[in-house]
Description:
By secondary structure, the chain is an alpha+beta fold. Helix 5 (131-141) packs across helix 6 (147-157).
Amino acid sequence: MRESCGVFGVYASGINVAQTVFFALFALQHRGQESAGIAVTDGDGIKLHTNMGLVSQAFTENDLALLKGYIGIGHNRYSTTGSSRPVNAQPIIAKADGLTIALAHNGNILNFELLRDELQQRGYHFHTSSDSEIIANLILASPGQNWQKKIEYAMHRLQGAYSLVILTEDKLIGVRDSLGVRPLCLGTIDNGWSIASESCALDHIGAQFVREVEPGEIVIIDSQGMKSFKKKNVKKALCIFEYIYFARPDSIIEDKLLYPLREAMGRRLAEEYPVDADFVMGVPDSATASGIGYSNLSAIPYCEGLLKNRYVGRTFIEPDQRIRELGVQLKFNPLSRIIAGKKLIVVDDSIVRGTTTPHVVSLLKKAGAAEIHLRICAPPIRYPCFFGVDMAARWQLIAARKTVPEIREYLGVDSLGYLSLDGLIRAVGLPRDIFCLACFTGAYPIPVQIEMDKLALEALHQEKLSETRL
């Protein structure tokens, strides 16, 4: 399961901000590894650099040196609408009627086809297959004498999830959709402000966390300071997977540090699914805290049965067939001399398609594990996500096709326990009604088309290109 993107923005007078944005993107690398980009302004035009790959691959010292400016935004991408191609890398620059903006987006827009058709009829041209370009042009096309009014109008038209950072020639703007599906937070740095998907990015650049951007809120930062425009009586639908998996455990969301909440998920699992074993282990790194929580409550020793190669990321070097067949073994290496002959409780964050977990189980069996008891921090995922998570179509979700006993048999484990929805909510310690739980329940916060294709805009884009050639 992949999250859609990480976004960051900073306004700091008297500072060249490109390096600040660069290091903030490092902290948000977990939210997207397909491409990275930075846009800056010094008050006289917007400069942009984007590239494919990890942040460390996308920029050189010379690239950053050319990005002169005191306002900047950055983006790490994982595609949920539009394919992974250089043209879809963000931030995206859009121009119309003498106005220019750069925009970085985390989320997914549901009514993109309608909006794109409307904008094309009005003479707007699209160069990408990303819904983010639609948002940027919709803002430019919206009525209003200032950015606040334009963005408010655009927000009324947009359906779906969007946390945005927007750059004009003299302003930094943060926007969060009215459901607050994806996170966004606000901080101070030196003599300026910063906006980030997660508070961990603020920590990495020495910024001070102030608060979260509220659902439906617009934050505008310029030479006059920070101004906030809030929407009243919002209904929240924060993605519960930010707590289970997506966000870093050192981030704060809804005033909760995530690490102890993940420990609490492990403790709940130990209460709901106790079993006698020699060791507890978490699948690194996302389930490490939950594994420790299970160990603490059960009094069964914790061990690192799998070591993760943390330097395995996206690479432009294609592996040969023998290396490709190693699959998950490139990412994990089992400690055979520790786990051989032992009964293991293996804690993981989730099972989506059921394609990766069998490989992990196989690795542990080959290392000599006598028994494997799998415990999952999320309830069974039976419905797809349409709000910025590239999860799967429903027919690909293993829990939509199989019962829990059937999944246990398919995975080849001795027992399988999914954390109950009530247990998950109790572990997080926040009201149930502030979350989007649609992937478990099928109750979406807004109406959705049950089967949507992340490459639908790609097809539309190619169709328009073909028409142009004809």
